[in-house]
Design a protein that fits this description.
The protein has 5 helices and 5 strands; from the N terminus they run βαβααββαβα. The chain is an alpha/beta fold. The chain has a single domain, classed as HUPs (Rossmann fold, 3-Layer(aba) Sandwich). Helix 1 links the parallel strand 1 and strand 2. Helix 1 packs across helix 3.
């Protein structure tokens, strides 16, 4: 059941995996329209110290394809994040922020900044991290390092 007209979520979405799918599914489950912040290359590399495999353009295209193939909804917009909180800081349209348990502290920081600007706080919906078969979180870094695949299965190394 949709509880909010507009929700926001965000990330780097470099190598898409089941954890991203959980985050996106929850966003579409609770919101009629989803604003997805996609970090720019400069912000991801410079401010977040991310080692990207894909450029912004490729990540954007891959994210659109992923949403089309896995979720099959079209009520969303992908925006470029050049800073930590992006348009959420100024929008009075966004009612909810969907975050992972790893990034939930950002929700509190966003609401503090929104309050300082005279805006109402947004609701925070937390999605637990998806664990790989070894019990550790699935992440793009672990996939890039060939520890696991995008479904969280351990990658066996051939010797």
């Amino acid at each position: 059941m949709k509880r909010y007209k507009c929700v926001a979520t965000g990330g780097t979405f470099d190598i898409l995996h089941l954890g991203h799918l959980d985050l996106l599914k929850k966003s579409f489950e609770v919101g009629s329209f989803v604003v997805i912040g996609l970090t720019s290359d400069i912000f991801a590399r410079g401010n977040l110290n991310k080692n990207l495999r894909n450029s912004f353009e490729i990540r954007h295209k891959n994210l659109e394809t992923y949403i089309h193939d896995k979720i099959r909804l079209t009520s969303y917009e992908i925006t470029k994040l050049e800073e930590e909180f992006g348009p959420l800081m100024f929008s009075d349209q966004v009612e909810c922020l969907v975050v992972s348990s790893e990034t939930s502290i950002k929700g509190e920081r966003i609401n503090k900044k929104r309050s300082d600007k005279g805006l109402l706080p947004v609701e925070i919906v937390i999605v637990e991290l998806r664990l790989a078969e070894d019990g550790n979180p699935i992440s793009s870094t672990r996939i890039r390092d060939r520890e696991i695949d995008s479904a969280g299965r351990i990658v066996s190394l051939k010797k």
